[in-house]
Amino acid sequence: MGRTRVNLQPIRGRARTGLPALLLGAALLFTTACSAGGGGATGGGDDKNGGAGTGGTEASKAVVSVKPDDGAKEVATSGVLKISTTGGKLATVTVADTKGNAVEGRTSADGASWEPDRHLASATEYKVHVVAKDEAGRESAKDTSFTTLTPANTFIGQYTPEDGSTVGVGMPVSINFSRGITNPEAVEKAVTVTAEPSVPVEGHWFGNDRLDFRPENYWAPGTKVTVKLALDGVEGRPGVYGKQTRTVTFTIGRSQVSTVDAGTKQMQVVRDGQVLKNLPITAGAPSTTTYNGQMVISEKYEVTRMNGATVGFGGEYDIADVPHAMRLSNSGTFVHGNYWASSGTFGSENVSHGCVGLRDVRGGGNGDVPAAWFFNESLIGDVVVVKNSKDKQIAPDNGLNGWNMDWAEWTR
C-alpha cells in the first residue's frame, strides 16, 4: 500500500504542471488563426465567390436590385418586373413559377438590366434568383419572390380549327375573344402561330374581338401548324385579363379548290392541281345573287334546317331537312344539297336565295348524287371560289374569308 501512495504523487504533480502549458498552447493557436485573416503575409488566397471569405477579399461591388420587392402581393402582370445591377454586370437571372416554368427575358447590351419578354401569368407566385459580378469577378446574389394579382374580370379566346384536326389549304386560324379588346398589341403578342415547313404567318384584326392568322397564299399540303395561346395574365382591356394557356396543332391535308361559275352554272373541283369532277349547280337567283370571291368551308352538316327568317328572307322558305350542307359565310351562304328543285334546274337556272345548290335526294342517303359526292370529298378549310355572279365580293370577315384581302392590306 505504501508503494501505491508513492506512485500517485508524481502523477498528480504532472497533472498540475501540464494544464497551464495546454492552455497557453491553445491561446497561441487561437491568436495565430485570428492573425492569419488580418491581411498580413500569412493571409489566405482569393475568395472566388466574393463573400466574406478568407484572405482579406473585399465584398463584390455589384449591387443587385429586383422590382417588385421581396414578398410583394397583387403584382401587375406586365411592366413591373425589372432586374438591374450597379457596379457590375448581370451573370445569371432566373425567374420561374413554383412549378418550374421559366420566364424568358433579355439582358441589356451593357449587362446592367433584365426585363421579361412577355407578360406574367396571373395569380402566380414567382421566384427570382440573380447573380451579378463586378470588374474583379466577385459575385453578388439576390433571391426574392412575389405573387401576381388575381383578376376580377377575365376573357378567353374561342379558336378554330380544332386541336388535332386535318383541314383544307384555305383554313385560317381564327380567334374570337369573349370580351372586346382595347390593347390588341399585347393580346396579339401573346398568340404565336408557326408552320412546318416554315412560312411567314401574320395576324389581322377584324373589329376588337376577332384575330385571324394566315400565310400570304394558301397553306402547302402537309403543313403542320402550331398555335400557342399564352393569354393568361394579358390585360386585354383595363382591368380585364386573359385566363387561357393552350397549345393547338392541326395539319393541312390535300389541296382542294372548287370554282363555281355562276354564269355557266358549273362547279369544277380541282384536287392537287388535277380536275376531279365538273358538277352542274344552281346559284343565286337574279334578285338574291351569290357573293363572288374566295370562301372557306367552315362547317359541315349532313342534314340541317334552313329558315329564311334567320337571314333576312322571312317567310320565303323554311326547310327542315336540307342535306349535305357546308357553310361558306356567317350571313348564310352554303353549298348544299337540293332535292326540291327539278333535276333539269342544275346547270341551266339560278334559283337559290344566294347559296350554291347541288342535286340531291331527300334524306341524303344516296352517295352517288352530286351533293353527297362533294360533301364526302370535302374538308373543313377547303376553298370554294365563286365568280361571274352579279353580286359584290364577299367581305373578308364574313366567314373565314380573309383571302379576299390582299397581303399588303392584311399586314397593315
What would you say about this model in short?
The chain has 412 residues and is mainly beta. The protein has four helices and 28 strands. The protein folds into three domains: 63-148, Immunoglobulin-like (Sandwich), CATH 2.60.40; 153-252, Sandwich (Immunoglobulin-like), CATH 2.60.40.3710; 256-407, L,D-transpeptidase catalytic domain-like.
Characterize the structure shown:
There is one protein chain. The chain is mostly beta strands and 412 residues long. It has 3 domains: 86 residues, Immunoglobulin-like, CATH 2.60.40; 100 residues, Immunoglobulin-like; 152 residues, L,D-transpeptidase catalytic domain-like (Beta Barrel). Helices cover 13% and strands 38% of the residues. The protein contains 4 helices and 28 strands. The longest helix is centred in the N-terminal third of the chain and has 35 residues. The chain is elongated and about 100 Å long. The N terminus is likely disordered.
